[in-house]
Amino acid sequence: PHPIHVLRFNAAQDLERLDRIIDTLASDPPDVIYAYGTTVTKAVLARFKKVPVVFNIVNRPVRSGIIQSWENSGNNATGASNQISVKNQLSTLKKVVDFKRLGVIYNPLEQNSSIQRDIAKTLESEFGFELFDFKVDCSRRAREVIRQLKNQVDAVFIPADTMMVVHGTELGRQLIEYQLPAMGSLSVMVTEHGVLLGLVPDYFQLGLLAASKIRQILDGKRPDQIPSSRLRFFDLYVNMKTARAMDVQVPMGVLVMSNTIVR
């Protein structure tokens, strides 16, 4: 096995801080850069054209321009994606509540989040709903947006978005107060923030996928020789505490399919 020295950097949702971190890396380039999220990955790739970059938690790597294709990136990147079908997520939510007005809470500055919102928009006719945008790009907007949900929508879709995790506790509390069933894209939204449902990837498995690519690079492969990957199976989370608080009847068929039930 390779002896590995790991340097960890946390941009903490701060683009200026991210720039400083990239400057630090540029002054003494590492053998491999592991980038978490679409925004970070794109910023790293803008500065590093030769250092291998392994990304993770990038929902739409091809559509966001990070790689040319799943089989061949065409650049110095490869990685693992938390991509999950928005159609499957909304189909699952529809099994629990027959929503006609769906709110989507997302950060318009996060490309991955906007892409998921756009996909949801294309499903309006098929699922029989109207989509309402609630854009969150800072803490002040988060509080304002959460208050706006009341009396405007029947249910809520929350894309995979780091900012939604940052404001997750407040968001979850307000969703319960306003009796709004929601589908989240991260397990923490259900287990810690009280969101009703989550159809999500297994982040441990995503970590293993990314680690396997780092290993191949250290063994001498170029990133464009290593296909990028996504999981084939996903986990369904249900928060029964929230269901009881909202007086929502979760169908037995949904419970049977669940991997994790919060009681």
Descriptive report:
- The chain is α/β, with parallel strands linked by helices.
- Helix content is 41%, strand content 17%.
- The protein contains 12 helices and 11 strands.
- The chain has helices spanning 15-27, 38-47, 86-96, 111-122, 124-127, 139-148, 162-166, 168-177, 187-191, 203-218, 240-246, 252-257, and strands spanning 33-36, 53-56, 77-81, 101-106, 130-135, 155-158, 182-184, 197-200, 229-230, 235-239, 260-262.
- The protein has a 7-stranded mixed beta sheet with strand order 5-4-6-7-8-10-11, sandwiched between helices. Strands 1-2-3-9 form a 4-stranded parallel beta sheet, with helices on both faces.
- Helix 1 packs parallel to helix 2 and helix 6 (139-148) runs parallel beside helix 8.
- The protein is globular, with a radius of gyration of 19 Å.
- The mean pLDDT is 93.
Structural class: alpha/beta
Roughly what fraction of the amino acids lie in strands?
15-25%
Average of per-residue pLDDT values: 93
Sequence stretches where pLDDT stays below 50 over 5 or more residues = none
Number of helices: 12
- Cα(first) to Cα(last) distance is 42 Å
Total DSSP E strands: 11
Rg from Cα: 19 Å
Order of helices and strands: HEHEEHEHHEHEHHEHEHEEHHE
Proportion of helical residues: 40-55%
* Main beta-sheet annotation: 7 strands, mixed
Strand order, largest beta sheet:
5-4-6-7-8-10-11
**Envelope shape:** globular
List the helices and strands and how they pair.
Blueprint: H1 15-27, E1 33-36, H2 38-47, E2 53-56, E3 77-81, H3 86-96, E4 101-106, H4 111-122, H5 124-127, E5 130-135, H6 139-148, E6 155-158, H7 162-166, H8 168-177, E7 182-184, H9 187-191, E8 197-200, H10 203-218, E9 229-230, E10 235-239, H11 240-246, H12 252-257, E11 260-262
Parallel strand pairs: 1-2, 2-3, 3-9, 4-5, 4-6, 6-7, 7-8, 10-11
Antiparallel strand pairs: 8-10
Helix pairs in contact: 1-2, 6-8
